[in-house]
Amino acid sequence: MKRLSIRSLSLLLAALAFAIAFTSGFASGSAHAEKLTVFAAASTTDALKRIAALYEARTGDEIVPVFASSSTLAKQIAAAAPVDLFISANPQWMDYLEKQGRLVAGSRHDLLRNGLVLVVPKDSPITGRGNDPVAVLKGLPADARIALGDPSHVPAGIYAKQALSNLGLWDAFRSRIAPGSDVRAALALVAQGETPAGIVYSTDAAIAPGVRAVASFPLDSHEPIVYPAALIDGGKLEAGRHFLDFLGGPEARKVFDELGFGLAEAPRPAS
Q: Is there a binding annotation on residue 71?
């Protein structure tokens, strides 16, 4: 009986030692959870918030997204803002950072595609006239303004200017632009009835309850709308690469697809 008690005590102590070791190991792993700062184009707001929640639930890492115009974010990165990953709404601002040596070599790739649409306030009587943005814009009052991202630096505005120029409308509207600091700001101008129409990404129009899309711009009226993503030099390389891989995986791609983004590359296998 005495021997049994000693044996039981030994087993209990062994089990306790294992539990302590296991708990310590788990705590040690948790201590290595990373906080990643992701600068992303304003048009990715809804998608990236959902994807970040999925990733955080799976890994324990924390994703801190910062949304604004790609130009604003790129300039902050160039000024050494602490960032791990950048998603731009056009290649131009990613090129800008690449020339400055701010990207991790080999990490850049095209992630998403998008389109341009003409939107009006939800209760507007304006129709699409057979999905013809030219006819709709020509039918606006002579003093009507249209909202778009500031074409001097906001990607959505740059694409909108290209479309208007190629469709022969830029000269008629250049003095009637209501510029937004990013595409969401332009969208808000239309939703609030500040302007009778605006040009935004198709994905933004799809999720905004206060507007409706009345016409799509031809794909050949502007440069392809491509969203490149890349790791930033000096950031958390390993953790950033894991999240970048996740953005290309099936779970993230499903979210992007549900919100109307086109896929720039084939989905990556689940890791």
A: no
State the greatest distance between any 2 C-alpha atoms of the chain, in Å, as a whole number: 102
Tell whether residue 47 is among the known ligand binding residues.
no
pLDDT tens readout for residues 13-71: 444 443 333 333 333 344 478 999 999 999 999 999 999 999 999 999 999 999 999 99
Asked if residue 263 lies in contact with residue 110, where contact means CB atoms within 8 angstroms, the answer is no
- Residue 70 annotated as part of some ligand binding site: yes
Spell out the domains of the chain, with CATH numbers in brackets.
34-112+226-263 (3.40.190.10), 116-216 (3.40.190.10)
- State the pTM of this model: 0.83
Q: Is the dihedral of CA 200, 109, 47, 182 positive or negative?
A: negative
156 is in an annotated binding site: yes
Q: Is 201 marked as binding a ligand?
A: yes
